[in-house]
Each structure stands twice: as structure tokens, then as C-alpha cells.
Design a protein that fits this description.
Blueprint (H helix, E strand, L loop, with lengths): L5 H16 L6 H16 L2 H7 L1 E4 L5 H6 L5 E3 L4 H14 L7 E4 L12 H6 L3 H16 L5 E2 L23 H16 L12 E5 L18 H8 L1 H8 L4 E4 L3 E2 L2 E2 L4 H11 L5 E3 L7 H5 L5 H10 L5 E2 L3 H11 L5 H17 L19 H14 L1 E5 L11 E5 L25 H12 L2 E5 L13 H10 L2 E7 L20 H9 L5 E6 L15 E4 L7 H9 L79 E8 L3 E3 L3 E10 L5 E11 L10 E10 L4 E9 L5 E3 L3 E3 L3 E8 L6 E8 L1
Parallel strand pairs: 1-2, 1-10, 2-3, 3-4, 5-6, 6-9, 12-13, 12-14, 14-15, 15-16, 18-26
Antiparallel strand pairs: 7-8, 11-16, 17-19, 19-22, 20-21, 20-25, 23-24, 25-26
Helix pairs in contact: 1-2, 2-15, 3-14, 3-15, 7-8, 7-16, 8-10, 13-14, 16-20, 17-20
The structure holds 1-deoxynojirimycin.
The site of 1-deoxynojirimycin has 6 residues, from loops.
């Protein structure tokens, strides 16, 4: 076609593409999508194509000009909806091709109505609530012109020092996948083109939660089997749920920075898994390939990004600066850019932006609509994990006066937790406000002391007055934990004990001998072994969001029972990290018979038999609280575990059941958890792996048969030499209410 004018060549090519594809489309929708995308692609100059690959920050000085020139595919961090509208208008009405913008924002756990941090949401073990929370966040964000969120974060992590554990669903791959998929469904709904849905962006691909020592952005050294069996499965699950996009990670993985990781991105994500959504870098993470010491300069980083099939660059400018040169040199083929543009335009089409760029036409409910606040309250209730209760909660009838003490009782900003760009503390209802309201209605006295200005303050203020009020109160409610600023991105901690003078505060208020119920609000598991004996009850509330107050008041005064379960193991001491339930057995598994505490070693001993098993002399081998653990105001019993067929073949369905009974005297919810273990294999397997769970509400005395169905195929794992294998052999299965105990059954998978 040499010699033909550019435009004519384009038209002929387009006609060819459309003709050759005719009849191959799975649906009319796909046909229209392709036609739109290919038509635009044919009309675009190289500069405009590259422009689609660029995501610009709202503060970029020449943003307007760039948009008018068609050099921007997406914007992020433009909080003012009027400005969003104006920028979208520029793109649609003033740029040559009128291609709308993807408008991105970190809508992580709510927009204006803030839900519990994702780690707290995971503690609810309630998939429907998590989905509904994302749906509400999408509605609120979409009403402000946003069409793309950078969530869910599905980085499995085993390190509570890592500040971003707050944003994850904890340590388990299955939980991360299940809740990640729920959020994807919530954000995106059934039809992404509805103006009240937004595109999800699952992150961070991959192994961001594996940062050495929990120091954010750090190196992830991870064996291939662990990468495939622990870190990657949630990504597969969100892809199956239809996630529109994926964000790469800042870290390197075994020597290759994630944002230019050809084996993980091009080979695995695109080729093996067939992912056709948009892949976005993290903030300037492409240019950081140079700082990592992987690429000699930004041009080479750009080359790596393209080779890895990275579609869009967040904020840094390698693509717009170097791609034209790389094409001219013949190192990058323009078709690679076309593929990236196709994916981005395809996402815009799916979002309905070509028809309705501003997301108009929807009758959006007001921000912070009462139904949104109610959903946030319910999620906050279900996220609370009761770790201890020596008969002090719910607050008994005879208690007529309460001392409410601590830096988190009335901390409207901190109760929202990390990543709340759009949350406003003015809308938070604090525990103190709600307790006062309840007390007013029920004739209770409340004496309040903040005691510590911040969770990390080292001085207790007004200790005498605190003691006076504890003495005259019937009971103490202590609100401890972490301010929101102590978790989140780049907010890792080496010491995860209760910060500041909180331990001293617990000791002080427990002095007079009044019952002490502690509520801990934090972005991570904190270690509080020293303080725990002074607490008669512990409610672990994470950062519960806007409705912390009403939710906690409902629990504290017994309107509802706590029902949360830990999505992460709680260490007793930071030195035990990593400590997680799905560990390997080792050749010398620890036991109480073999363990000798350091204090019990005779002073004169120079040699002493210490059992030679995998433990610490000082901290043994058990966590403070196991994964999956959480108490209720009732009691439950499990009985009659049944396996329909203890001998199965690969591909058969395993059917297991157990009877759950509420043996206490209040209505409550219990989470029945199913774990399995492959006893031996071509690679050693974890001692337990969560396979499924069900949250069941029962009245006192009521019982229910809980049935699980699992495809034996899904019990397999990735062996680097063989790929994904489900191996014949002996297996155990547990049905329990946490990861430590459970009723055990055995089964066999035969050839
Ligand atoms: C950096 C964070 O790692 C990422 O998760 C976030 O979405 C972007 N910044 C945009 O704010």
C-alpha cells in the first residue's frame, strides 16, 4: 500500500480488519466494541496513541493543554467534581478525537461514607457485606465524576510491621481472592457502563506484601512455588471475577522490578492467563526501574515496560518521551503500542464513556445517604473481633456508670484509618458520642478522659482525675490502638506494641479493680501481651470507619454479638514474625513436650536438652491468637462431621458437612471454616489451608447443618517443574471455628 495517502491506507486497513473479523465475534457487544476501538485507532497519530498511555496527576501544570492536544489517557487525584467535569469536557469536546478520560482515584474503603479498613472488612468474613460496601463506594465516587478506583489491594502479607497490611485482606490467599473478587463485583456491578459503577484496579502485581522486614517498597525474595501458591492465586481469582485493570507493584521480585517483569506480566498474566484488561504502573514505578538498578536509564525502563505489556504509566513520563524514539530505532513495534491503546480504549468503551463521558443520567443518592451509613455500621459491627471476654461484656444491667478512657474514644479522623482521601472527620460518629447518647437514653453516667493526646503520646495527662473517675465508675471502657497515620503506605513499624504510654495507661486504670473492657482500633495486629492480663475483655475493632461509634456501642451494650474472625495471625512478640497459620511442618515440628522456656533452663546449665524442635526459647511457637479466631456472646458447638465420600478422584466433588449449634443464650453468628492438608506430595505442603467458610446466624438452641462442596481439582498446587498439579494421596480435612482446632476427617485422592 506504499504511496497511498495515510488516511486511505487507514480506511482500507479498517475495512480489512472489520471484514475479517465479521462472524468471529462472541456477541454484538464485542463487535461494536471492536469497531469503535479499531476506528479510533486508525485515526490516531502516534502521538495521540502514546497519549492514551499516559496518566497525569491533577497537579500537572499543563494538564489542560495536554488534554486538549489528546495527549492524556487518564487523570488521577482531581478531587473537585467541577474540575473533573471541565477536564472531561476538554477531552471530549476540545481534543481532536474526543476520546474521554479515565478518571482515577484511590477509593479504597469507601468514598465519603468510610467503611472499615480492608483488613477489618476481611475480619467480617462476610462476602456480601464487602461487595455491598464496594457498591456503595462506587456510587458515591461515580457521582463525583470518578470512573476508576485503584482497589482492591489483594497483596497477601505475613508481616504486620508492613503499614499496608491495613489495606490488605490479611495473610491468606483464599481470603484475599474471595474478598478481592467481592470488591470487584461491588465496584463494577453487572454492567460497567452503568453510570453508578466504576472500574476496579486490583493491586499490586505482584508480591508487594512480601517486602523484606515489612519495610514498604522493599525487595521481595520469594521462591517460585510460594509466589504461585500464595501470592498469585488472588490475582487469578479477581481476573475470573472480571477485574477491568491491574496495577503493578513498586518492589522487585527475585531481582526484577515488578513494573518491568516480563515473565510475570507478559508471559504469565497475558499469555498464560489471557488477561485482556489494562495494566497500569504504580506512581512513577516505571522510571524507578533505573533506581532499582535494573535499567541503565529511563529510555531502557520504557523499553522494559513495553516489553512487559505495561499499558499505562502513572505520572512518570517515559512512554511519552522515549517511545517515539524506540519505534524509530525499530526496538519497539508500533503494534505493541496499538495493543496497549486497544486495551485502554476497550476499557473506556466498557465504562460507557463514549456515550456518557460524565456519567450523567443516574439519579445518584446523596453522599453519606442514610442507607450508606447503615451499611457502613453493619460492616463495622461484623468486623469487630472479640479476643477475650471474662464475663464483662456486654455491659451488664447493674453497671450504672462508665469511665470511657483513651486516645481513640473520640478520634474522628483516626477511626477512619488509612487511605481516606475523600473521607471527612466531620461525618464520623465516635464511640464517645455514641456511648454518651446511649447513656443519656438509659440513665448511665459517663466519665471521659482522653488520657493520651495521641496513641503514641508518652505522658498520661490527668492521672489523678482518671483514677478518681475509675474509682467512682462501675466499669472502664478503654479505647486504645493506633492513630491512622501509623499504618498505610510508607508507614511501617519495627515495634508493633501498643505505642506511647498505653501499657502504663492500662495498668493505671486496672489498679482500682473495676472491670476493664478494651477496644483496640488499629491498622494492623498490634502486640499487647503485656497489657492483656489487665484487660477483662478485648474487642479488636481495626479502624472501623465513619460509623465506629454506633457499631461499637451496639456491641458493647449487647444489641448485637461480635462475630468477626481474625484474617491474620496475631504474634505475641514482633520477633516471631513471620508467623502464619499455613506454614510448613518442618522435620522437627514444635510441641509443648519439647519446648523449654528460657527461664526454666537451670542457671548452671552449659548444655541442656532443649528438645531440638522449631521454636523460640523465649516465645515458644504459638501466636497470641490464631488465624480465624474470634469469640461471640454466645457459645457454639460443632458435631457430626461427615464426608460423603472419603475416596475420590481428581475432579470429583468433595462434600463435607457438620452440624453447628448455638449452645448459648443469645443470637449470634459463627464462621465455620474448612481447612485441608495434603499429607505428602511432590513438594511439601502447608499444615493447613483454608478452602471455604460460611458465616451462619443462629438463635439460642438452634442448630443447622453446614454443607461444603469443593472440587478436588482446587486442592492442587503449583510445582515449578510440573505446573499446577492435584496429586493423589492422603489428605486431612478440618471443620472448625478457627485455624487451630476443628473436627478432623480423612480422605484419599486416588488416581
Ligand atoms: C501509590 C500506591 O502504592 C498505590 O496503591 C496508589 O493507588 C497510587 N499511589 C495512587 O495514589
Amino acid at each position: 500500500m506504499k504511496g497511498l495517502p495515510y488516511k486511505l491506507t487507514g480506511i482500507l486497513l479498517l475495512a480489512f480488519v472489520l471484514f475479517s473479523c465479521a462472524g468471529n465475534y462472541a456477541s454484538e457487544y464485542e463487535k461494536q466494541r471492536d469497531q469503535k476501538v479499531e476506528t479510533l485507532l486508525q485515526e490516531m497519530t502516534l502521538e495521540e496513541k502514546i497519549g492514551q498511555l499516559m496518566q497525569k496527576n491533577g497537579e500537572f501544570p499543563q494538564l489542560r493543554e495536554y488534554i486538549e492536544d489528546g495527549l492524556v489517557g487518564s487523570i488521577l487525584n482531581v478531587p473537585d467534581p467541577k474540575r473533573v467535569y471541565e477536564l472531561q469536557r476538554l477531552a471530549v469536546e476540545e481534543s481532536r478525537l474526543g476520546i474521554p478520560l479515565l478518571v482515577g482515584r484511590d477509593v479504597i474503603h469507601g468514598f465519603k461514607t468510610i467503611f472499615p479498613i480492608p483488613l477489618g472488612q476481611a475480619a467480617s468474613w462476610n462476602v456480601d457485606l464487602v461487595e455491598d460496601g464496594a457498591r456503595i463506594a462506587a456510587i458515591e465516587a461515580a457521582s463525583q465524576g470518578i470512573n476508576w478506583t485503584f482497589a482492591p489491594m489483594i497483596d497477601v502479607t505475613r508481616d504486620p510491621r508492613w503499614g499496608r497490611i491495613a489495606e490488605s485482606f490479611g495473610e491468606d490467599p483464599f481470603l484475599n481472592g474471595v474478598f478481592g473478587a467481592a470488591m470487584v463485583r461491588g465496584f463494577q456491578g453487572d454492567d460497567l457502563s452503568n453510570p453508578n459503577t466504576i472500574a476496579a484496579c486490583a493491586k499490586h502485581y505482584a508480591a508487594y506484601g512480601w517486602a523484606e522486614g515489612g519495610r514498604d517498597y522493599n525487595t521481595a525474595n520469594i521462591p517460585e512455588s510460594e509466589l504461585h501458591n500464595v501470592v498469585l492465586p488472588p490475582f487469578k481469582m479477581i481476573i475470573d471475577a472480571g477485574a477491568a485493570s491491574i496495577m503493578t507493584a513498586f518492589n522487585e521480585i527475585n531481582g526484577i522490578p515488578a513494573t518491568g517483569h516480563v515473565p510475570l506480566m507478559r508471559d504469565l498474566l497475558r499469555q498464560e492467563w489471557g488477561y485482556e484488561g489494562v495494566v497500569l504502573s504504580d506512581w512513577r514505578s516505571l522510571e524507578q526501574l533505573v533506581i532499582h538498578g535494573y535499567s541503565p536509564n529511563e529510555k531502557e525502563a520504557t523499553y522494559e515496560g513495553m516489553q512487559a505489556t505495561l499499558d499505562m504509566e502513572m505520572v512518570s513520563t517515559g512512554y511519552e518521551t522515549y517511545l517515539p524514539e524506540l519505534i524509530e530505532e525499530g526496538r519497539i513495534d508500533e503494534s505493541q503500542i496499538d495493543d496497549a491503546v486497544r486495551r485502554i480504549l476497550g476499557m473506556k468503551f466498557d465504562l460507557g464513556l463514549f456515550e456518557n463521558p460524565y456519567g450523567l443520567g443516574e439519579d445518584f443518592p446523596e453522599l453519606l445517604h442514610p442507607s450508606h451509613l447503615e451499611a457502613s455500621r453493619q460492616m463495622a459491627i461484623e468486623s469487630v473481633v472479640m479476643l477475650k471476654n471474662e464475663d464483662v461484656l456486654p455491659v451488664p444491667e447493674h453497671v450504672r456508670s462508665i469511665a470511657v478512657i483513651g486516645p481513640l474514644a473520640d478520634a474522628p479522623h483516626d477511626q477512619m484509618g488509612t487511605w481516606v482521601f475523600d473521607g471527612e472527620k466531620e461525618h464520623s460518629v465516635t464511640p464517645l458520642q455514641s456511648i454518651r447518647e446511649f447513656a443519656g437514653d438509659n440513665g448511665l453516667e459517663v466519665y471521659y478522659h482522653r488520657a493520651l493526646q495521641l496513641s503514641r503520646s508518652k505522658e498520661i495527662t490527668n492521672a489523678d482525675a482518671i483514677l478518681r473517675d475509675v474509682n467512682r465508675a462501675d466499669m472502664v471502657l478503654l479505647f486504645l490502638g493506633e492513630e491512622s497515620i501509623l499504618s498505610g503506605e510508607a508507614h511501617s513499624l519495627a515495634n508493633i506494641d501498643l505505642q506511647g504510654a498505653q501499657e502504663e495507661l492500662v495498668e493505671l486504670v486496672s489498679g482500682p479493680g473495676k472491670p476493664v473492657a478494651a477496644v483496640i482500633m488499629a491498622g494492623r495486629p498490634v502486640t499487647f501481651e503485656k497489657a492483656e492480663p489487665y484487660m477483662d475483655a478485648v474487642l479488636y475493632a481495626w479502624h472501623p470507619g465513619t460509623m465506629a461509634g454506633p457499631a461499637l456501642t451496639d456491641i458493647i451494650f449487647g444489641k448485637v454479638s461480635p462475630s468477626g474472625k481474625l484474617p491474620v495471625t496475631f504474634p505475641r512478640h514482633v520477633g516471631q514474625i513471620p508467623i502464619y497459620y499455613n506454614h510448613k511442618n518442618t522435620g522437627k515440628p514444635p510441641s509443648y513436650e519439647s519446648w523449654v522456656h528460657i527461664d526454666d533452663i537451670p542457671e548452671e546449665a552449659v548444655q541442656y536438652s532443649l528438645g531440638n524442635t522449631a521454636h523460640y526459647l523465649d516465645y515458644g511457637f504459638e501466636p497470641m491468637y490464631p488465624f480465624g479466631f474470634g469469640l461471640t456472646y454466645s457459645s457454639f458447638e460443632l458435631e457430626n462431621p461427615e464426608l460423603e465420600n472419603p475416596t475420590l478422584q481428581v475432579g470429583d466433588t468433595l462434600r463435607a458437612s457438620v452440624v453447628l449449634q448455638n449452645t448459648g443464650d443469645v443470637e449470634a453468628a459463627e464462621v465455620v471454616q474448612l481447612y485441608t492438608r495434603q499429607l505428602f506430595g511432590s513438594l511439601t505442603r502447608p499444615v493447613k489451608e483454608l478452602r471455604d467458610f460460611k458465616k451462619i446466624v443462629l438463635e439460642p438452641g438452634q442448630s443447622r447443618e453446614v454443607v461444603f462442596e469443593i472440587n478436588t481439582q482446587d486442592l492442587g498446587f503449583h510445582n515449578p517443574d510440573k505446573g499446577f498439579v492435584t496429586e493423589p494421596g492422603d489428605y486431612h480435612l478440618w471443620l472448625g471455628t478457627d485455624s487451630r482446632d476443628g473436627l478432623k476427617k480423612e480422605f484419599e485422592i486416588t488416581r
